[in-house]
Amino acid sequence: DIVLTQSPALAVSLGQRATISCRASQSVNISRYNLMHWYQQKPGQQPKLLIYRASNLASGIPARFSGSGSGTDFTLTINPVQADDIATYYCQQSRESPWTFGGGTKLGLK
Amino acid sequence: EVQLVESGGGLVQPGRSLKLSCTASGFTFSSFTMAWVRQAPKKGLEWVATITSGGSNTYYPDSVKGRFTISRDNAKTALYLQMDSLRSEDTATYYCVKESTVATYFDYWGQGVMVTVSS
Question: Which pLDDT score is estimated for B103?
């Protein structure tokens, strides 16, 4: 199985940049496609798709969210961080079944 | 607006069975692959099952293979998860999710239904 590793927590100040990383145990690329996706989950709510295929913004997601990366290393950036962005963020790969998620990064305020 | 509404959760004893349902609306249900993803209390996300649009192909991780069965009724726009031989580690919130057309990401999620396996 492809293991996705995320830092458990990150603290940022409002208005600053947050960079959340996800490292895969093997490449999640197929051809030119980077098969890494990002989700946001607020307490008591279901996850919501933010970014698909590493860098594509999902419908209705604000432009302060962006994604980058290739191969085994991927990043979700939030700039600037707003109060509404306090949540847990998960990466997910679809390169190989079973589809796996990272352990999640809980974004908090300094 | 895409809506996915789960039902059927509850408390069940180890070794027993439970069937979850999900009613979908707001999109052409019969055209899309669907899945279930679960989340144990205070834990991360785990993919549980996938079924293709026509229902002919199903996929599971090893953790539930042989115990869980995903199915669908396109006429009723309904998705199901039959869970047999339940274990305490199956305790989780179960989400009904719509898969994207390509690249297997989960673009819409239901609100989830809680399943507790305990004696």
Answer: 77
- Is the distance from CB of A41 to CB of A87 less than 8 angstroms? yes
Alpha helices by DSSP H, listed for A1-110, are none
The arrangement of strands across the sheet holding A18-24 comes to A4-5, A18-24, A73-78, A65-70
Q: Identify the pLDDT of residue B30.
A: 97
Could you tell me the pLDDT band of residue B101, with boundaries at 50, 70 and 90? confident
And the tokens for A65?
């969210």
- Model confidence at B102, pLDDT cuts 50, 70, 90, reads confident
A contacts of B37 (beta carbons < 8 Å):
47
Tell me how far CA of residue B33 lies from CA of A11, A43, B52, in angstroms: 37, 27, 4
- Whole-angstrom CA distances from A96 to A65, B79, B109 are 26, 24, 21
Tokens 């599971």 map to which residue?
A: B60
Both tokens of A58, joined, read 């999902």
Closest in B104, B107, B110 to A46, CB measured: B110
Instruction: Spell out which residues of chain B touch residue A29, defining contact as CB-CB under 8 Å.
Output: none
Q: What is the DSSP letter of A71?
A: T
Residue B53 and residue B60: Cα distance in Å, rounded?
16
pLDDT in tens, B37-95: 999 999 999 999 999 999 999 999 999 999 999 999 999 999 999 999 999 999 999 99
Number of A:B CB contacts under 8 A?
A: 55
Dihedral angle computed from the Cα positions of residues B53, B59, B61 and B62, in that order, rounded to the nearest 10 degrees:
160
